[in-house]
Design brief:
The complex is a heterodimer of chains A (112) and B (111). Chain A is mainly beta and 112 residues long. In chain A, 0% of the residues lie in helices and 56% in strands. The radius of gyration of chain B is 13 Å and the shape is globular. Classes of the chains: A mainly beta (112), B mainly beta (111).
Chain lengths: 112, 111
Amino acid sequence: DTAVSQTPKYLVTQMGNDKSIKCEQNLGHDTMYWYKQDSKKFLKIMFSYNNKELIINETVPNRFSPKSPDKAHLNLHINSLELGDSAVYFCASKLGTNTEAFFGQGTRLTVV
Amino acid sequence: GQQVMQIPQYQHVQEGEDFTTYCNSSTTLSNIQWYKQRPGGHPVFLIQLVKSGEVKKQKRLTFQFGEAKKNSSLHITATQTTDVGTYFCAGAWSGNEKLTFGTGTRLTIIP
């Protein structure tokens, strides 16, 4: 019973391609996030949705477009992939404010 | 912008020694959380501190929140090989759903 699941776990693709990462949570949470973790392990927030509405949009290239079809899903589409997009992308979710975040297993994206 | 600084970036200790990592925010936090990420894994929640001066313990781990709610620390007593990983603090501010992670402290244990 995976709480926050991401697919795929690994993604290797060429520069210029378009790819999507999917995230689903079965915890009944109302807030979902996308974080990017680079090779130095820095965790940077990219987007956050609350009840399907975008509430946080950090300085991220507009090649990245999140989509939340419902409260349980938050997908990330990336256009025209670049070498610098290589990283581990984590989806996370939580319920309400001042609560813990649950992370997915991560998607390791490698752009060649 | 709102940032959380964390030091040190790396810490190598002999098994059995103590370990401490520190977090600092330039502005008052609503709460601070701590997470542990094992090598190859994902961040896992450890604890949340909300009150000024709060101290919480989990076995060998002691978490503190400063009186001004701008800094926090995690102290591990008598480290074990299972403590290996990266420890992150994550700060939140009032009225803001954003959870901002510190830069992390990567702990390695020398057996």
